[in-house]
Design brief:
The chain is of the alpha+beta class. A hairpin with a 2-residue loop joins strand 5 and strand 6. The radius of gyration is 28 Å and the shape is globular. The structure holds decanoyl-CoA and flavin-adenine dinucleotide. Flavin-adenine dinucleotide binds next to strand 1 and helix 10. It is found in: Peroxisome. This is Acyl-coenzyme A oxidase. It comes from Mytilus galloprovincialis (Mediterranean mussel).
Length: about 625
Amino acid sequence: MGITDMQEAFYYRECAAAHENSPLGLHYAMFLPTINKQATPEQKKKWLPLAENYKMIGTYAQTELGHGTFIRGLETTATYDPKTKEFILDSPTLTSKKYWPGCLGKTSNHCVVMAQLYTQGKSHGPHMFMVQIRSMEDHSVLPGIEVGVIGNKFGYGTNDNGFLSFDKLRIPRENMLMRYSQVGRIPRENMLMRYSQVSRIPRENMLMRYSQVHEDGTYVKPQNAKLAYGSMVLIRSSIVSDAARGLAQACVISIRYSAVRRQTEAYPGGEEPQILDYQTQQYRLFPLLASAYSLQLAGKYVFNTYLEVNDQIEKGNLESMPELHALSAGLKAFSTYEASAGIEVCRICCGGHGYSQASGLPKIYVDVVPGCTYEGENTVMMLQTARYLMKCYSRAKQGQKLPGFVQYIGQNLNKKSCMSEEVALGCLVMAYEHRAARLVEAAAMRMQSLIQGGKKQHEAWNGSSVQLFWAAKAHCHLFCVKNFVDAIQAKSLSSKTVTVMKSVCQLYGVHGILENLGEFMQDGFFSGEQVGYLQRKMLALFENIRPNAVALVDAFDYPDMVLGSCLGRYDGQVYQALYDYAKSAPMNQTEIHSTYYKHLKPLINPETTSDAMQFAKL
Ligand SMILES: CCCCCCCCCC(=O)SCCNC(=O)CCNC(=O)[C@H](O)C(C)(C)COP(=O)(O)OP(=O)(O)OC[C@H]1O[C@@H](n2cnc3c(N)ncnc32)[C@H](O)[C@@H]1OP(=O)(O)O
Ligand SMILES: Cc1cc2nc3c(=O)[nH]c(=O)nc-3n(C[C@H](O)[C@H](O)[C@H](O)COP(=O)(O)OP(=O)(O)OC[C@H]3O[C@@H](n4cnc5c(N)ncnc54)[C@H](O)[C@@H]3O)c2cc1C
């Protein structure tokens, strides 16, 4: 393909496969990036060319039958044998079998495996290992390995998610991905050294970038154990844009269809209006259109942040790792929740035809909704963000300056909204900052009161986790609103396009408040009158957006081939397309289906069944 940009390459494959999850999806999405980010230069030199040219096809095998979320609880072991300088991979229990990794069952011949590292009788936590699982000659499964598919799933039918287990499989020491931690000496030139270390210690015991090595299996931990989690942060940062893509495509289909579909005479004898003219249809679809634009902007921001922070990490500066983890984890959860729920609303807005595969909507849904689970289950991810917000809150209370986007935390909450009839963008941002700051403080207060009441830290955490979840969700929502407003305000408002986009941005903010009103009104921040301003503004924005609604979805520029939808066709020839789709159905290739003779005829004409049964046996 020759496309080097990861997101471009992903989109190109998405176009080619039109929502069918590529059987090599994990090879591209996680196997290659993990080698890139977690392997030493020598390992990269050896594996990357093979993997990039499909001489190694791999996946990312971390989740097990018994553990997906709790990585430190994974049971697969990798025990270092200093005599043979090998790792022994083993699946000691039923629940330790790897289960779920994409492209694992029948496609991959290698995988990077997350296993608990043991050396010199001690556990050092989860680490990544390169493991060949099938022969490069005939693709047969190698000795000491059991691998297969996990069977039918909710969707992702083109991806052979699989199971995998090891029976004391030996792999060379060099197969541990040693970028951030090592066991067993590797040549000095592979040590990614921080120059500050070269001058201070003799060259022969040069420290690895994050660790020291000894051939007897002595392990020295990396600068931060979570560096091994880097591939997940990368994918979480990509999933935001993928969720936005799914929601945008569903909006294209449902809004174009709503402009074609006419239903119910508006008044006795009158013509049937486009269903897009029904206010209730606008109420359900236009905020989703706004959300699709907002999530696309958020996806760009978080991926660019990932690239910037990852650059710093590669230079040994881990300072921004916690903020990136909190942002990527929270936005991955927020975007996949919003997109999954939104795609389902788009389907419902298309009536019966929305339920047909011909609409393209079911495929988009089953393609996006697993994003609520994989790469970190959404609730758990939101709680990771909440963990970071709690730390920010206590730092704010100690008078410390907070970094970038979280400066709203700890603000004075004794203020009222500036909202007027005009519904200024600035007042919208202030409302979301107030709500998030208040929910962060409420969660912190709840935890403090539980601890003061004698609860242990983990009990207080669990006893506050609903409020922690609310705080994290409000934090992500604020991020999306503020990021959208910043994008609008960064542009001159002269051009018509930006003026239209300002309405879309306003709708995103207004609708989000009205759909979460309790959280904005609980402390009297908004008056009843101000809520009235917002309700009237929302209805006015529907009218304002209606003339440009189709242009706003056309602007996403998804070709018909990618949408794969009879309802969302650019030319609007919906009914002919639906009829052609029906005619092409395999069951319509014969006038009488063979099952008639076997099952129906005996019911309808039992007397003539015998010769029919002969016929059916033909
Ligand atoms: C574009 C579409 C492509 C679709 C393809 C994708 C297919 C799907 C592929 C997969 O699903 S691969 C498997 C994905 N599995 C996961 O994502 C598992 C999720 N679980 C975790 O990430 C960790 O288990 C979890 C963060 C929930 C808890 O980890 P720990 O128990 O080690 O951490 P803990 O919660 O005790 O926090 C310890 C510290 O580590 C920090 N931390 C945790 N994860 C981090 C991280 N990733 N980066 C940086 N810091 C991290 C955390 O903030 C905290 O910092 P503080 O102590 O300062 O508060
Ligand atoms: C389509 C698909 C593709 C996948 N591909 C891969 C892959 O390629 N490689 C791979 O390794 N894995 C893959 N996975 C597995 C995926 O990463 C895990 O399913 C995911 O990490 C969730 O873990 P789990 O299934 O153990 O759920 P669990 O963690 O068991 O979650 C179940 C419930 O428990 C709750 N819960 C769990 N822990 C906590 C907590 N600490 N606090 C509060 N609530 C909690 C969750 O919120 C959730 O509601 C895939 C999964 C799917 C669906």
